[in-house]
Amino acid sequence: MLATHLENRRVEVRNVRRPQRPTGFALIRLLVGGICNTDLELQRGYYAFRGTPGHEFVGEVVDADSAGLLARRVVGEINLACRKCEWCRKGLGRHCPTRTVLGISGHPGAFREFLTLPETNLHVVPDSISNEAAVFVEPLAAACEILDQADIPDGSSIAVLGDGKLGLLIAQMLKAGGKDVHLYGRHKNKLRIAERAGVEVGAVKRKPPSNTYDWVVEATGSADGFRQAVQMTRARGTIFLKSTVHGAAHVDMATVVVNELTLVGSRCGRFEPALALLQSRKVDVTDMISDTMPLAQAKRAFARAAEPGVLKVLLQG
Ligand SMILES: [Zn+2]
Ligand SMILES: [Zn+2]
Fold first, then answer.
1. pTM for the model
2. Strand, helix or coil at 125?
């Protein structure tokens, strides 16, 4: 079968043996995979990654212990947890200290014709959600995590910094949740996607307002975003940090202390609210697809995804 291989910043497609399915796991045929910024960071050399990347996918179960999963379309949570430790017992396998992570650490990813995941990680995709939308469940779940982490009153004014893939999903998700959302970004075409969803947009060039928001989401993917988020937040406000920026962030911590800001790191989320948002069509992701290429052209797809201004690039299994 075909499998994407990433090593020393190079992406290639290899012919490898089909993976064995351990007990409790499902064997899944890839339908569509989505290239995310994390994949591009792996390519840039973070986490010393070597192997098959890919953690955003929708696939079809071809073998499993549970007969009910056979031939079903599924998406999968990316953390493979021990299911025994304190975190796992609390239902927070996403923080299990001995977890492996699909396509990121310790478990080969989804950019291959067949992949394996524990059956307990899988969610069946309702028929009304297309493959091209279902592939967004994982990043949309990460967006939804914000509302699991804080009680944001309805009608609250929230600023989202960054009009990349995640920023757009977060802005749409918050809007669907009844918030007053202001998205700040650099790209007219991307801001327009949020605007169509009823989000107020502003160009970041015209300096975003300082001391204005009680709630700010930082999703720029750049170290400078954090500094900007601190400036925009009112005293006692909360900043959600969504960018996994590597290295030191240069920010005046005195402002954080004096203004008594709350910083909330935010990563993966539950899949249920994301599936519900796609099913109700309250979040529309079709505008966010820049390109679709066959798995065999993964190398070209990675290059395309790294071009400036490009949103989601999909790989067809
Ligand atoms: Zn991702
Ligand atoms: Zn655990």
1. 0.94
2. coil
